[in-house]
Design a protein that fits this description.
5 helices; single chain; mainly alpha; three-stranded antiparallel beta sheet; 11% strand
Length: 127
Amino acid sequence: MNDPEHPVVRVDGVLEALGDPTRRIVVELLAAHGGGTATSLAGELPVTRQAVVQHLAVLREAGLVESRREGREVRFELRTAALTATAAWMADVAAQWDRRLKVIAEIAETAQVEAALAPPEGADDAP
């Protein structure tokens, strides 16, 4: 079932789309301006309008932008759900690593304490 209000976010598609620096700039411009047309975006980028249209298609496929026709123009707007879902996934992965690192730190601290409390080597061999 495909619900347009709650699309399934493919994190890999979002990360792939945002892997291109021009697409990241397009996302930033859409966020800053609240949307725009391919022509208006191309005016702020060192690429052609056709290149912007291709970048927007990749961003739309990843669920990062949506388009709607307004008269003769097609207006693009940022969809934050995909960014939010990707950020949540990244935060979850970071939290998992934080938990793992905490366990490693605790093991290292325990080993350090045990080493400090242990008698020196050869102390049991005294005559």
